[in-house]
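Q: What does the predicted 3D structure of Inositol 2-dehydrogenase look like?
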Amino acid sequence: MLKVGVIGTGMIGQDHIRRLTTVLNGVAVTAVTDVDTAVAADVGGRIGATVHATGEELVGDPAVDAVLVCSWGPTHEQYVLAAIAAGKPVFCEKPLATTQEACLRILDAEAAHGSRLVQVGYMRRFDFAYRALKMAVDSGEIGLPLMMHCAHRNASVPPFYRGDMAITDTAVHEIDMVRWMFGAEVSAVRVLVPRHNRNGGELEDPLLLIMEMADGVIVDVEVSVNIRYGYDIRGEIVGENGTASLGGPAPVAVRRDGRVGVPVPADWRERFLQAYDVELQEWVHAISLGGQPLGPSAWDGYAAAAVSDAGVEALRTGNRVLISLVDQPKLYAEAAG
Ligand code: NAD
Ligand code: ISE
């Protein structure tokens, strides 16, 4: 039984604790912590977990074999580094860190440890629909992929969602997904700012990101985070001979009274329910067998952060911003191969 400690017991922390305790096999949540001590005590009390005062204390708990970081993005670096220093596997919700410099410090720490400890929560790689889309592309049936059109729509976002988070917290999913989908790095990014959505107050919303991949594929991503009607994730790949796209938002359509109705998920918990289950079950399995995590690595977290940093610069300057990555450390090249 893998004993997991969870840092951050907010929305996704609680959702992951629910799946670790009621859905998945071979795992128990033995410890929790949150700067909001009341919520940590409440969540920990319900599952009989030790409630720690700090993330560092939780990492040092001998009853914690592996760590799940679900606190806010700017706090990820300190907890991932603490887990690496303790030699404990750590699953970190995306983003790995909010800047590429912070991600590089994590890469250095992991390289000094000498084997992979970190997995990043880019769950789209585990989603049935995205996996089927990738299989369609890889099979060659639409010819060489040329372009991808994406939309990432949230009905609304929480009050702490501010500033550049449309790129660093939301579009970062598409940034990781296209690197995985096309097996290529993003080489340049531009951001266009359309007319302002008044539902979002001061937030710059929506945005249109245009990413150029090193192999020539061009990807556009509409990010709308106050679109009210629901959580809608779309993707269509245009190839030489055809297109391949994600299906609609629901498996069932109801036809009545002269209309066709399809429910739209309320948020990411509903849309990616199965993807989170698979990513964490596979992580638990790999770590329990004493192996390294097999999902998105700290290198993937760094590469996504480098693109999101460039996206933020593109948004602020209006420029097309080029991206160059550091040389990939051997640890990740070996793991990929
Ligand atoms: P949230 O605000 O609901 O929860 C975050 C929790 O972290 C809060 O309870 C907060 O008090 C706590 N926290 C903040 N700073 C802390 C610190 N220093 N130490 C311990 N706890 C601290 O936010 P959320 O929506 O659950 O997001 C949390 C993380 O998960 C973010 O990085 C977000 O990007 C990621 N996330 C990923 C997905 C996904 O689809 N993979 C979905 C939602 C959120
Ligand atoms: C949130 O943190 C997520 O990761 C969701 O998947 C995304 O849709 C949302 O915009 C983010 O804020």
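A (community wiki): The structure tokens above were generated from the sequence. Residues 154, 157, 169-170, 173, 225, 268 surround ISE (ligand 2) (CB under 6 Å). The chain has two domains: 2-122+274-297, 125-271.
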